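Q: Got a minute? One more chain.
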Amino acid sequence: MRMQTVMGRRSARRGLLSAGLAGSLLLGATGCGGDGDEDGLPKDYKVVAGTQLCGGNAISTEASKALKTITGASRFEASSKEYTVAQAASALASAYPGSTVGGTNACRIFTPIGTPPFKLAITWRLADSAPSDDPASPKFTVLKMGEETLAGTEQAYVFFACQSDKLGAAGEAHIVIGVERGGMPRDPQDNIKALKNAYATVAHSFSLAMAKELRCENNGGLPPKPVLDPA
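A: Always. Here it is, folded:
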C-alpha cells in the first residue's frame, strides 16, 4: 500500500511532509533520562560533539559541521542508548518486507539545556517502490544521491535501494532516511542553499551508516561523500 500523497509525487515520495510534521510532535522530550542532580539535570546528562551522536558512527565530520549550520550549535545532548544506527538497522531488518507509513525514529538530536532550543529527528521508513519521475515539490532540490535525494530548508530525505543477506531473500528494499526539524517550522530569509546542503549532508551520513550496517550491496549505491549537485 502506497503512502498518501502530500508532495504530488507517487510511490515512496508520498507522505513525507505530513509524517514529518506529525513526528515533530514527538520531539518535546529531552534526549536523556534519569533522576535529577543538584543542578536539576539528569545524573547521566552529557553534552557531546556531533560525531558522537546516534551511536558514534552515524554522523561524519562533514555532517557534524552541517549540524552547526542547521542548529547554530557544535555540541549536543548525548543520544539516548536506544538511538543508535545499529539498533535502527536491526529494527528495519525485522520490519522488512513490510512497509512503514510513518517515519520510525532512528535518532533524535537536541541542543544542550541552557542554549537556544533546537530539535531534529532522524527517521527511517520502508517504501513499496523506488521514487517516481514526477516533478518534486518546489520547496525541494533534487540531488544525485542514491535512488534520489530531496533537500529542503527544514528537512531532507535520501532514498536508496538495499540488497543484503540481512534482509533475507525477499528482494530489494527501498529505504528512506529523513532528517526533519522538530517544533514549529519557519521559512528562512537567507542561507537557503546552505541549509539545503546541510540537511542533505546529515541525511547522507546516516543513510550511508545504515547501508553499511545492513551490509547493502555497494552501500545501497550511496557515494562515500555527499553529492550536492542538483539532478
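A: The chain is about 25% helix and 20% strand.
Q: Perfect, thanks.
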